[in-house]
Design goal:
With 82 residues, the protein is mostly helical. The chain contains four helices and two strands. It has a two-stranded antiparallel sheet with strand order 1-2.
Length: 82
């Protein structure tokens, strides 16, 4: 069964990722699939490189983008094209 990532999960992901842990290690430790971690890293991409030479990740940015996407989809569902 799929598990949704909470804001606290995103903060843990950010800490582990910034500490240099591998995506496989993060996925295993947090109980998420590799694809869920990769999708979340893409969602929270800061557009800058981190100290490990990888794309930067922000838990706050990931949460904001998820919220805005859900709001946009909710608006579409409430106002179908006629």
């Amino acid at each position: 069964m799929a598990k949704h990532m909470t804001q606290d999960d995103r903060k843990v992901l950010e800490a582990r990722y910034n500490a240099g842990q591998s995506v496989a290690g993060i996925a295993s430790a947090m109980g998420f699939s590799f694809s869920a971690i990769y999708k979340e890293l893409k969602r929270g991409d800061t557009g800058k490189m981190d100290t490990n030479g990888r794309a930067g990740y922000s838990a706050v940015l990931g949460q904001q983008r998820l919220y805005h996407t859900k709001q946009r989809l909710r608006y579409r569902a409430d106002n179908p094209a006629e």
